Amino acid sequence: xxxxxxxxxxxxxxxxxxxxxxxxxxxxxxxxxxxxxxxxxxxxxxxxxxxxxxxxxxxxxxxxxxxxxxxxxxxxxxxxxxxxxxxxxxxxxxxxxxxxxxxxxxxxxxxxxxxxxxxxxxxxxxxxxxxxxxxxxxxxxxxxxxxxxxxxxxxxxxxxxxxxxxxxxxxxxxxxxxxxxxxxxxxxxxxxxxxxxxxxxxxxxxxxxxxxxxxxxxxxxxxxxxxxxxxxxxxxxxxxxxxxxxxxxxxxxxxxxxxxxxxxxxxxxxxxxxxxxxxxxxxxxxxxxxxxxxxxxxxxxxxxxxxxxxxxxxxxxxxxxxxxxxxxxxxxxxxxxxxxxxxxxxxxxxxxxxxxxxxxxxxxxxxxxxxxxxxxxxxxxxxxxxxxxxxxxxxxxxxxxxxxxxxxxxxxxxxxxxxxxxxxxxxxxxxxxxxxxxxxxxxxxxxxxxxxxxxxxxxxxxxxxxxxxxxxxxxxxxxxxxxxxxxxxxxxxxxxxxxxxxxxxxxxxxxxxxxxxxxxxxxxxxxxxxxxxxxxxxxxxxxxxxxxxxxxxxxxxxxxxxxxxxxxxxxxxxxxxxxxxxxxxxxxxxxxxxxxxxxxxxxxxxxxxxxxxxxxxxxxxxxxxxxxxxxxxxxxxxxxxxxxxxxxxxxxxxxxxxxxxxxxxxxxxxxxxxxxxxxxxxxxxxxxxxxxxxxxxxxxxxxxxxxxxxxxxxxxxxxxxxxxxxxxxxxxxxxxxxxxxxxxxxxxxxxxxxxxxxxxxxxxxxxxxxxxxxxxxxxxxxxxxxxxxxxxxxxxxxxxxxxxxxxxxxxxxxxxxxxxxxxx
Length: 824
What we know:
- By secondary structure, the chain is mainly β.
- The protein folds into 2 domains: 2-106, Immunoglobulins (Immunoglobulin-like), CATH 2.60.40.10; 126-808, Maltoporin, Chain A, CATH 2.40.170.20.
- It is 4% helix and 64% strand.
- The chain has a 28-stranded antiparallel sheet that branches. A 6-stranded mixed sheet has the order 8-9-15-16-13-14, with no helix packed on it. Strands 3-2-5-6 form a 4-stranded antiparallel sheet.
- Strand 29 and strand 30 form a beta hairpin.
- The radius of gyration is 29 Å and the shape is globular.
- The chain starts with a helix and ends in a 34-residue tail after the last strand.
- Residues 1-22, 111-120, 793-799 and 811-824 have low confidence and may be disordered.
C-alpha cells in the first residue's frame, strides 16, 4: 500500500501542470462501512479518466472524510479501496468548483480465493457500533465442533439446562444467516448440535438490535453467520470427525458433511449435507427439603444414556436476472431421532420424615423422540439505484414441524410405604408457520439512510398427549392426564428508521417499530379458551461519536418483547424425574424489557460497556409442592428483573508475534422481585451479582501450526426464584494446514478437567429448599479432518430470508422432556 500511495502521488504531480490553466474542481465525501455506518479510516480514493489513468488520489482521514482537489472539469470514475472491503466505483461529472459525493458505502469482502495468501489476522472479537462480532472460522476449537459448542464460547453467552440461550443473563432470539432459527429450548439445542461448526463464519451478538429486526428476544439477537462460497465454478468442502471418552462407559461421537457449490454468471446453486451420531451420559440429582432437615426430605438420583442421530440437507439457489434483480429459494430439511434410557440400577428416590426412611423407590424411564422439520424461503432483491442505495427485498417463509415422543415410566417401591406406578404417554406436536416481509432502503441528503418495512406472520400448533396407566397388568387410558391444546397466533409489524452522519465525527440512528399480536389458545381438555391481543411500540436510538482514530463511543437505547414459547403455553406435563415435572401455562403474558448501554472502544483492542436493563412480567418457572413431595415447575409471569453493570473485553492483544490474548468479563448486579400472588408469603426477592470471565490464548507456530486454549467461568447467578451455581470449563486444541492449505487436521479436547455441570438451588420464604444438579459428560477428545476442493474466482453475495416466530418453537416444556438437559 505504501508503494501504491507513492506511485499515485507521483502520477498526480507529473500531470498537474498540464491542466493548471483549466477550470478545476474539488471532490469531497466520507467513506463508511455500509452495514455499521461507521467511518473507514485511511481508505484510499483515486480519480480515473476515460482511459483509466489516475488523475489524482488521496487517503481518507481518521473520520473517513476526504477531499480531492485540482481536478479539471469533466467525466470521471471515483474509486475507493480499503483492505478487507470490496472496491467501490462511482461515475461523477465535475461542472462546478466543488462536488460533494456524500457517503461512499463499502461492503466487507468475505471472499477467500484459493490462490490468495492471507497475511492479515482477523481478530477473534470485533466491537462494532451495533454488535459484537466473534470470528470463529479460523479458530482451532471450531474444527469438528457443532454449533452449540461454538456458541458456548461466545463472550457473555450462557446456555441453561432448559437449552435456553442467554446473552449477559437475558434470553435472546437465535438467528442463522439473518433468519431466525425457528426454535428455542431443547429443540434449538437439537438444531445447534446437528449443525456442523466448521460451516460457521462468525457469530454476531446484537444486544441492542435496530428497529429493522423483530422485537422478539428480551436480551437481543444472536445471529450465526454461515460460510458462503463466492467462487465461480464448482467448489466445496468435505469433512469428518470422530471423538469419545471413557466415563462410566465409553461415550462417542462421529459425523461429517459435504458442502458443494456451483456458481455461474446467471445462477448460484448450493447443496449441503451433514450427519451426526453421538451418545452421552447425563446424571441428574434433585433434593427437596420442606421445613428443616429433620422434617421432610426427598432425594432423587437418575443416570441416563442419551443417544441421537441427525441428518440435515440444505438446498439453495439464486438466479441473477440481471445486475439489479435477483430471485432465489432456500429449502432445509432435518431428521433427528433420540433415545434416552436409564443406565445402571441406582436410579433411586428416597423419602425421609423426621430423619426416618419412609420409602425407597426405583425408577425406569425411557423416552424416544423423533423430530422432522422442513423450512422453505422464497426471496427477491431489487436494486433500483446503486448510488442512492435504493433497494427492495421481499421474503416469504414457511416452516413445518412434526415432533413425536413416547415415554415409559415404571416407579416401583423397593422398601417402606407407597405404591407402584407404571404409565406410558405418547405426544404429538404439529406446527405450521407462515411469514411474509418486505424491506426498503434508500439514502438521502447524501449522508443519510432511510429504512422501512412491513411484516405479517401466522403460527398454528396442534398438541395432543395420550396417557395410559398399567393397573392390573393391562393398559387403561387415563383421561385426566391426557391433553389436547390448539394455539393460533397472528403478528403484524411495521417499522421505519433513519440514520445520518452529523459532521465527520457524529452518527445518529433512530427507529420505531410497532407490533400487533392476536393469540387464541384452545385447551380442549378443560374446555378453556384464552384470547390475548396487544399492540406494542418499540423505539430505538443509537448515537456514535468518533473523536479520533483511536477512540469510539456508542450510546444506545432499545425496547424489546419476549413472548412465551409454544411449549411454555402448552399445559402438558413433561417429567424431569420420577417426582418432578414441568407444566405449561396458557395464561402467560409476554415479558417487556428496556435497555440502555454506553460503550467505549480504544484502538480496537479494548472495549468497555456500561449497561442497564429492566424487564417486566419475567417468564419463569415457579416451583410448587404437594403433600407427597412431588415438584411441579409451572411457567408463570414471575415479576420484575433489573440489571446494571458492565462488560469489559480485550481482543487479540499481541503479547508477542506468535502469541495473542483475548479476554472478556461481565459483572452485573441483578435484582429479581416476584409478586405476592405467585405462591409466596409476601414479596419474593432474589438479588445478587452475575459475573463471568472468558479468556483465550492463541499460539501461532512455525510451518502453519496453531494452538488454542480457552476457558470460561461464570459465578453464581440469581435468576427469578432460582440461583444458578458457578460453572467452569476449559478447552484446548491444535491444528495443522497442509496440501497447500486445502486440508486441515485438528485435535481438540473438550472440557479438559471435566468440570462442566448445570446446578441450581431454590430457597423460599416458606422454608422450602429445592436443588437440581445436572452433570453432562462433555469431556472428550476429537480428531477431525476437512478438505477443500474445486477452483474458481470471486463473485458477489447477498442477504435474504427473514422469519422470526419459529424461534419460539420448543417442546422441552422446561428443564427437559424426560430428563434430557443441555447437551453439546
